[in-house]
Each structure stands twice: as structure tokens, then as C-alpha cells.
Amino acid sequence: MMWFTADLHLGDTNILHDMDRPFDSVEEMNRKVIDAVNECVAADDRLYILGDFTYRLPLAEAVRLRERIECQNVTLIRGNHDGDWEDPDVPQIWEDVRDYLEIAPGYAKGHRLVMSHYPMLSWNGKARGAIMLHGHIHSRGDRTNARNRDRERPIYRYDVGLDANDYKPVSRDQILNFFGL
Fold it and tell me: Taking the chain, what is the end-to-end CA distance rounded to the nearest angstrom?
């Protein structure tokens, strides 16, 4: 199964009050977010983190947090708060690190999946049913996603960020079902 999330901001004390996250401390947020990932995503599933895995954490602590995620197949799509994970001196904790990624239509019922930390107004295949997955905007609840769906002609753009998805990752099938695909 394919899973997506973004904007974990592990270690970020500011995100607790800036986004009114329902955690009493950054330690509780780190634990509950990682627990939610591990409850949803199996070790042999594929997880895409669309940016902002941590914020202002020492590298060693970021590595320890990543190691607590049981999924082995994790790709990081870099966000504005992600460091240089491709430096040869940095532990290789990701299967892959990208700024942008497209997944061929054969993996999502004929729909191309286009991934970036940042939402786009237009993307490869938009007019042909491609689905843009992103984070960055910290939507609260599914208002933004519902607005994209609830139109005469839906916009297949989905915020996979924690704040928009009850602090849990979202599966490919959940996203396809959301749009009725």
C-alpha cells in the first residue's frame, strides 16, 4: 500500500500553538505522530513524506525519530524545513530524497500522482486526471480538500499534511475514494 503525509514538524515547539495542535508537549506530539504512522503504515508498505519532517532539530535527533518509524520504504520529498539529506556525511535513513516526484498512472487506477511539498496551480497531467499531492499550507481539517472536490469540475489536488488529515497518513485508496475515482 502507498501512504502519504507531510508537515510532521517533529521537534517543533512553535507548531503546537501556531497550528493549535492537540498535544500538551512536543514530546507527546512526536510520540503520537510516529505512533499514528506506525499504526497505519506496515513495515513493507511505501510511505512518502512530502516535506517538513522535522524543524530545528539536531541531525542526530532527526535520525532517531526517523528510526522510530517502522516502515522501511520511506521517500522524503523535501520541504522548506528539510535539511540536506543527500550529504555523504549524513546517515542514509531515506530510501530516496527528492524535491518533486511523479508516479506513473499504473499505480493509482490510471491516475498519475504528482508530489511536491508545495501546492501547484498547474501540474503535469492536470487536464488528464493527474492528482497533485502536497503539504506546506497546513489546512485545518479537510476544508481545502473538500473545496477542491466539491465543484462541477473537481481539482484533483490533495493536502496530505497532518493538520488536514487528523494527524495521520493518508493512503492512496483513501485519496482515490475521496475524489470518487
Answer: 17
- Going by DSSP bridges, is the β-strand pair 46-49/73-77 parallel, antiparallel, or unpaired? parallel
Question: pLDDT for 77-110, tens place per residue?
Answer: 999 998 777 777 778 899 999 999 999 998 999 9
**Domains by residue range for the chain, with CATH:** 2-178 (3.60.21.10)
Of 155, 160, 108, the residue nearest 134 (C-alpha): 160
The rounded distance, in Å, linking the Cα atoms of 73 and 99 is 17
- Of the candidates 181, 38, 58, 8, the residue with the CA atom closest to the CA atom of residue 110: 181
**Beta-strand pair 96-98/73-77:** parallel
Maximum Cα–Cα distance for the chain, whole Å? 51
For 6, which DSSP code?
A: B
Q: How many Å apart are CA 161 and CA 144, to the nearest integer?
A: 11
Predicted TM-score of the model (pTM): 0.95
117-125 contacts, C-beta under 8 A, 24 or more apart: 117/6, 117/50, 117/51, 117/52, 117/77, 117/78, 117/79, 117/80, 118/79, 119/157, 119/159, 120/157
**Distance, CA of 132 to chain centre:** 12
